[in-house]
Design a protein that fits this description.
This protein has ten helices and eight strands. The protein is an alpha/beta fold and about 300 residues long. β7, α9 and β8 form a beta-alpha-beta unit.
Length: about 300
């Protein structure tokens, strides 16, 4: 007697264990998400009475610029996350130096349109107070300049997740907590308000993690990262992590990571919370009266 063929299993498995049905459902869900996003983008331009709304002001992300190619690829990945969150919003990139497009060229491409400039900078300083407003004032476009990204709880959320990715324990024994500490490594600035902003982020991160967090700098300010590491070690904190307070990889973030006696987190990068924060600063700038002076620090 010949054994009959077993019923065909429509959920046969691909190499690696993924079911074909599951893969099909995943791709269908992704397609539906894209369709929903595109439909929402189109509907957002239509008023309840059926008339077409004007397009929103363009979002111009203002990066510092870096010779490290990883920086530009990271910023581009962040832009894609911003676009995913708000598909109807025109998003552009302009750099202060070192990379193209430069900010004046990006603004020139907008003609006389409306734009909100969101600095991809983590504190107040010369670029936020001088370079970016001067470029905005010289452009034909009707511009607003948003506050820098930091300090803000969403940055702390990103810093925390980057530390966990690097090996920071979310649950610690009492002994581990008493012997742990973090150096918040930032670029540095001669502007005292930049240090105030960085110290505020360090305080928020310390509250989140329950361990001391010392801000330190790669240039232009004190203490340096090695000095901050020694200061924590002198207090009996020998499990010292470096939290990379940089928007993207570069020379400074690499040098700071090399000073880590234990673990070093990756820069903030294209984290979803960073994309949410960019849009928050954009919305915040639009909600601020145009008669306001220079961008004011906001933490919520």
């Amino acid at each position: 007697m010949t054994a009959s063929n077993p019923p065909r299993d429509e959920s046969t498995t691909r190499p690696g264990g993924q079911h074909l049905w599951g893969a099909h459902l995943d791709s269908t869900a992704q397609l539906m998400n894209r369709i929903t996003s595109q439909l929402g983008s189109q509907l957002s331009l239509v008023s309840p009475d059926g008339t077409r709304r004007s397009a929103p002001p363009a979002l111009v992300l203002v990066g510092h610029g870096s010779r490290d190619p990883r920086a530009l690829s990271t910023i581009r990945a962040l832009i894609e996350k911003v676009r995913e969150l708000r598909p109807s919003l025109p998003v552009h990139l302009g750099h202060i130096e070192l990379n193209e497009p430069l900010l004046p060229d990006t603004l020139a491409s907008l003609g006389t349109g409306d734009a909100v400039l969101v600095p991809l900078l983590l504190s107040r300083g010369y670029h936020v107070k001088q370079d970016i407003p001067e470029a905005a004032a010289a452009a034909q476009a009707n511009t607003r300049v948003a506050a820098p990204l930091g300090p803000h709880p969403l940055l702390v959320e990103t810093l925390h997740e980057r530390l966990v990715e690097a090996g920071w324990r979310t649950r610690m024994t009492h002994t581990d907590r008493r012997t742990s500490g973090i150096v918040l490594a930032a670029a540095g600035s001669r502007d005292p308000e930049a240090a105030i902003d960085t110290r505020r982020t360090a305080g928020l991160l310390a509250e989140r993690l329950g361990v001391p967090v010392i801000p330190a700098y790669a240039s232009a300010a004190a203490p340096t990262v090695p000095h901050a590491v020694r200061a924590l070690a002198a207090r009996g904190r020998h499990r010292i992590a470096i939290a990379s307070y940089f928007t993207a990889p570069g020379r400074f973030s690499t040098e700071c990571a090399e000073a880590a006696p234990w673990i070093a987190a990756a820069p903030l990068g294209a984290h979803p919370s960073m994309a949410r924060l960019v849009l928050h600063r954009y919305d915040q700038a639009l909600a601020t009266p145009t008669t306001a002076a220079a961008p004011q620090l906001a933490s919520a």
